[in-house]
């Protein structure tokens, strides 16, 4: 039932058919959202699809935003048990909520900060059997909080993201990130934000409707899939256990 | 026109002059610079292999993409990479630009993978992208390794200057590019730039350094802050596959030539076509709905034939308007045919009519008076 209602999103991402090997392998997926339309549901959906029993995917979740219990609760409602996935080494949770990079150049040490985080991710993937490498998804929630943890140094975060991207070339894994558009909208030139748009192979934007608030529709999703040269747009409604995606006028 | 760019790079530099330099710039609204860059790169490399260009080797300085991306690109274009090792070298500033892997390996938290050196014969890893001088020296060394010393020239492709500008100030990058252009073994140089990542002055500096500036713009400008309605989405969809390609050449004689084309992005690659007329572009913008928004030829003629019920038709003649009080027959006789005279008779398959029945005889004929004039507000 979950599959049917999220079908439009899966279709736009290429997840509607076979998910082994992972269709998003080697790609960077950037999710952008706003306060009125949170894009976390896309993150949860991708996490759920990646931990599906039909696949042997491994997910490395880098959390700057919420603790493990939060995601455990949400994924349970979607029908996925994160605790057992973690015990089965299919789900690795890196709790970064307390990460505070040291100021200035001391942040650039292998011991602390984002360099160490990169090293940890690299080590985790290398430890897996080679055949599983392309089935690894790295999920980061979310980039704006990573910037905060890095004391506002967007350059440092961009360096880290670059190295994460090298992981997608090296291991053929996928990288999924979430960022908030309205945080950067007041800047003249939201470089950090735009940079992610260039890096992304698939861009998913969650925005409010042009017509404003509605009870039946929470917002609209625009999925730009550069690899397939395809752009899709549809409405969504986030319910308790599922997200419904539908074309305008057909809820 | 893309041909002209490739030709300019192929012809290369004249003795004692700066090498031709191309900036390929785009923005998020039409992010096709990479496709154009790849196209130019594969064309130039084909000429190098065929011996048709001044340069005898190509050095690719890759920041944004892994070396295997370029090798696969050239392989897909039919180039035999294995046998052309001595004509292309890639300076890999992608895999470990800041030396993080080295640092981590040093602290034993890290195991470098052996498959990282898969492409080692064609790619050299560069780990100090913050040092422009070392970068310069590495590029020259690689190039000389390809073509030897002396007078033989090689070309350079940089993907992309944005990464360089993140790691070094614009003055260093400008000096770096300028030095490359003045080196007497460099035939041509081109680079990729995302204009919305930098201040306007930075883009301007790079444009001044270039003899050719190729910019990509969206076919249709989107109104800001108006995301999300159906019309905007069809524009976004249109813009994701097409764009405008403007090229500005600075010629040796001081003249500047400006040309424009349309680019189409397909899965197989990029196509350049001449710009269509405005009408054709607008046709594609009509939103896809279930009723017909177009007029057929017959409908268009009928529409043109309708005599509008205004008092003044603008041709100096007073007009009697059928105001619903006279009989239909009288009305027809008095309808002027002046407006219809110019219509070709062989296509007069029926003039349009506006039939108007007045509600009651008490109403005055239509006049120019504003009916709201008697309101006392």
Layout: helices, strands, pairs:
The complex is a heterodimer of chains A (251) and B (377).
Chain A lengths: L1 H4 L1 H7 L14 E6 L6 H11 L7 E6 L4 H10 L4 H6 L3 E5 L17 H15 L8 E6 L1 H7 L4 H18 L2 E7 H4 L6 H9 L2 E6 L11 E7 L4 E9 L4 E4 L5
Parallel strand pairs in A: 1-5, 1-6, 2-3, 2-4, 4-5
Antiparallel strand pairs in A: 6-7, 7-8, 8-9
Chain B lengths: L1 H10 L9 E6 L6 H18 L7 E5 L4 H10 L11 E5 L7 H7 L16 E3 L6 H16 L6 E6 L1 H7 L2 H13 L3 E9 L5 H9 L3 E7 L11 H12 E9 L5 E11 L2 E5 L4 H6 L13 H9 L22 H7 L3 H4 L36
Parallel strand pairs in B: 1-6, 1-7, 2-3, 2-5, 3-4, 5-6
Antiparallel strand pairs in B: 7-8, 8-9, 9-10
Helix pairs in contact in B: 1-2
GO cellular component, one term (chain A): elongator holoenzyme complex
Organism (chain A): Gossypium darwinii (Darwin's cotton)
Pathway (chain A): tRNA modification; 5-methoxycarbonylmethyl-2-thiouridine-tRNA biosynthesis
């Amino acid at each position: 039932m979950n599959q049917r209602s999220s079908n439009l999103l899966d279709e736009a991402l290429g997840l509607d058919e076979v998910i082994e090997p992972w269709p998003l392998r080697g790609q960077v997926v950037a999710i952008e959202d706003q306060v009125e339309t949170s894009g976390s549901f896309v993150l949860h959906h991708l996490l759920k699809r990646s931990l599906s029993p039909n696949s042997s995917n491994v997910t490395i979740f880098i959390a700057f935003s919420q603790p493990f219990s939060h995601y455990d609760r949400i994924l349970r409602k979607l029908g996925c048990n994160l605790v057992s996935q973690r015990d089965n080494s299919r789900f690795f949770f890196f709790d970064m909520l307390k990460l505070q990079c040291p100021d200035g150049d001391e942040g650039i040490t292998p011991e602390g900060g984002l360099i160490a985080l990169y090293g940890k991710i690299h080590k985790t993937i290398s430890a897996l059997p080679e055949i599983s490498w392309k089935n690894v998804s790295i999920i980061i929630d979310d980039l704006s909080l990573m910037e905060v943890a890095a004391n506002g140094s967007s350059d440092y975060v961009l360096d880290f993201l670059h190295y994460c991207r090298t992981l997608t070339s090296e291991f053929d894994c996928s990288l999924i990130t979430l960022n908030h558009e309205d945080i950067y909208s007041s800047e003249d030139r939201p470089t950090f934000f735009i940079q992610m748009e260039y890096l992304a192979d698939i861009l998913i934007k969650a925005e409010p409707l042009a017509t404003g608030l509605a009870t039946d529709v929470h917002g609209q999703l625009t999925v730009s899939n550069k690899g397939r040269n395809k752009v899709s747009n549809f409405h969504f409604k986030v319910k308790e256990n599922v997200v419904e995606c539908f074309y305008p006028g057909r809820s | 026109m893309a041909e002209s760019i490739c030709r300019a790079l192929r012809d290369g530099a004249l003795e004692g002059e700066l090498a031709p330099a191309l900036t390929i710039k785009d923005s998020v609204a039409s992010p096709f610079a990479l496709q154009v860059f790849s196209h130019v790169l594969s064309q130039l490399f084909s000429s190098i292999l065929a011996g048709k260009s001044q340069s005898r080797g190509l050095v690719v300085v890759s920041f944004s993409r892994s070396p295997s991306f370029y090798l696969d690109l050239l392989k897909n274009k039919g180039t035999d990479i294995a046998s052309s090792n001595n004509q292309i070298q890639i300076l890999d500033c992608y895999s470990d630009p800041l030396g993080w892997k080295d640092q981590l390996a040093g602290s034993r938290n890290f195991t470098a993978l052996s498959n990282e050196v898969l492409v080692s014969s064609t790619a050299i890893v560069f780990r100090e992208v913050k040092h422009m001088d070392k970068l310069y020296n590495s590029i020259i060394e690689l190039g000389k390794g390809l073509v030897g010393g002396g007078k033989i020239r090689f070309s350079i492709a940089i993907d992309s200057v944005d990464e360089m500008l993140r790691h070094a100030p614009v003055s260093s990058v400008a000096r770096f590019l300028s030095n490359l252009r003045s080196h007497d073994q460099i035939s041509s140089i081109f680079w990729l730039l995302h204009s919305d990542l930098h201040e306007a002055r930075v883009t301007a500096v790079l444009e001044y350094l270039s003899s050719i500036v190729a910019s990509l713009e969206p076919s249709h400008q989107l109104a800001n802050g108006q995301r999300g309605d159906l019309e905007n989405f069809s524009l976004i969809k249109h813009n994701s596959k097409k764009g405008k390609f403007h090229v500005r050449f600075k010629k040796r004689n001081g003249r500047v030539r400006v040309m424009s084309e349309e680019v189409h992005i397909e899965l197989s690659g990029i196509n350049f076509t001449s710009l269509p007329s405005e009408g054709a572009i607008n046709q594609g913008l009509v939103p896809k709905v279930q009723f017909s928004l177009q007029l057929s030829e017959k409908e268009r003629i009928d529409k043109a034939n309708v005599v509008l019920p205004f008092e003044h038709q603008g041709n100096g003649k007073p007009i009697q308007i059928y105001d619903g009080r006279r009989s239909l027959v009288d009305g027809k006789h008095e309808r002027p045919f002046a407006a219809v005279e110019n219509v070709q008779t062989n296509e007069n398959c029926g003039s349009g009519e506006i039939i108007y029945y007045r509600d009651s005889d008490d109403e005055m004929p239509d006049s120019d008076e504003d009916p709201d004039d008697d309101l006392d507000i």
